[in-house]
């Protein structure tokens, strides 16, 4: 039987159970003297650091199933953690245990709270752990570590999807709980993942459909912004090479687009909109207005768009080109009269649908925005 000292996020019982695949045989409070639990700088998890006179509070779990130990080692290895021996104090006395730690201690900053972490990160961590554990035996911890930022982004997208939002009242009163899921497969996982499901769904006339197989490319939520200066009646558009049109065979795989970026794990879509506008357009947003929260292609994509109109000041032009070199971005910026862009939309010369949607929304609300100054 393995005894393991837990001091961080795995003290959250639902997460621990998801990682182990079952509840541990026994859980006891414990402490590790001469150490402290500290928040990792720029991270949502803690680190165990040596500290004279410190006490790291936690718990000891007993794993009597080798499979549970293997699952725990797999999960921890994704983060670069490996077991090390330690001796912890419990109400029954000293216990020899294993504790998972990285080879190189990370930089830390201040205290860490399990309750504060759970309030913000538990739901996302549960979703991410499900993907990590679902790939055990198919992908190595090292391979999973390489794509873990996208695993967390996909998890965050599922958390956002669970939040209620206004829907058209004509929709039938059915929910995902009415769908009968029979099997779920993930034959491919990397920056994106590809999922297949065998299911039956409720029919409008009553009863369930025959078993069907459906597949989708699993992406993340994204925030999109059309920067607009109502005082000058100008918009800013971005031009860049896009792999989608290129792989389709498009003769000119450069597109005009709004500002756009993936919603990072734990990030509010409006925060993403502000960050991406600064990074891609070189502009600071004055105000945001929601245009749409919508699926661009619900038949084959899980991707979900949060589309905004962003008020900006275009009196001082941003640099003609920009983008993050770390992401190999090569972006050209165009500041254009809105009437010009609206004319392109009417002539079918805008081939990115979120941009067309934003342009037509602005055409409808333009007078109000200009009157407000």
From TrEMBL:
A motif (Nudix box) lies at residues 261-283. Pfam families: GGACT, NUDIX. GO terms for biological process: nucleoside phosphate metabolic process; ribose phosphate metabolic process. One of its GO terms (cellular component) is cytosol. It comes from the Bacteria. Its EC number is 3.6.1.13. It catalyses: ADP-D-ribose + H2O = D-ribose 5-phosphate + AMP + 2 H(+). PANTHER family: ADP-RIBOSE PYROPHOSPHATASE (PTHR11839:SF5), UDP/ADP-SUGAR PYROPHOSPHATASE (PTHR11839). This is ADP-ribose pyrophosphatase. The lineage of its organism: Bacteria, Pseudomonadati, Pseudomonadota, Alphaproteobacteria, Rhodobacterales.
């Amino acid at each position: 039987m393995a005894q393991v000292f837990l001091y961080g996020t795995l003290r959250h019982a639902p997460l621990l159970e998801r990682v182990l695949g079952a509840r541990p045989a026994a859980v006891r409070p414990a402490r590790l003297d001469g150490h402290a639990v500290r928040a990792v700088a720029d991270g949502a998890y803690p680190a165990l650091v040596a500290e004279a006179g410190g006490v790291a509070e936690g718990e000891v779990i007993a794993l009597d199933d080798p499979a549970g130990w293997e699952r725990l080692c797999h999960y921890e290895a994704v983060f670069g953690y490996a077991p090390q021996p330690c001796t912890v104090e419990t109400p029954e006395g000293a216990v020899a245990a294993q504790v998972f730690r990285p080879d190189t201690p990370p930089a830390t900053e201040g205290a860490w709270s399990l309750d504060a972490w759970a309030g913000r990160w538990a739901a996302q961590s549960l979703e991410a752990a499900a993907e990590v554990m679902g790939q055990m035996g198919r992908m190595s911890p090292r391979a999973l570590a390489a794509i873990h930022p996208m695993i967390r982004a996909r998890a965050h997208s599922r958390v956002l999807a669970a939040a209620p939002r206004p829907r058209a009242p004509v929709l039938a009163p059915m929910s995902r709980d009415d769908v009968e899921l029979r099997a779920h497969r993930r034959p491919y996982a990397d920056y994106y993942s590809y999922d297949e499901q065998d299911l039956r769904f409720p029919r409008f006339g009553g009863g369930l459909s025959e078993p069907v197989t459906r597949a989708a490319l699993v992406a993340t939520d994204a925030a999109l912004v059309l920067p607009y200066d109502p005082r000058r009646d100008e918009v800013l558009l971005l031009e860049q090479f896009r792999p989608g049109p290129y792989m389709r065979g498009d003769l000119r795989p450069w597109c005009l687009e709004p500002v756009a970026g993936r919603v990072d794990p734990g990030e509010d879509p409006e925060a993403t909109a502000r960050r991406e506008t600064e990074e891609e357009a070189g502009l600071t947003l004055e105000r945001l207005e929601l245009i749409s929260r919508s699926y661009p292609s619900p038949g084959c994509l899980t991707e979900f768009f949060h589309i905004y109109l962003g008020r900006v000041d275009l009196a001082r032009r941003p640099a003609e080109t920009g983008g993050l070199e770390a992401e190999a971005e090569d972006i050209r910026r165009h500041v254009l009269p809105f009437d010009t862009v609206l004319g392109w939309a009417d002539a079918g010369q805008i081939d990115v649908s979120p941009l067309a949607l934003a342009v037509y929304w602005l055409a409808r609300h333009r007078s109000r925005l200009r009157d407000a100054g």
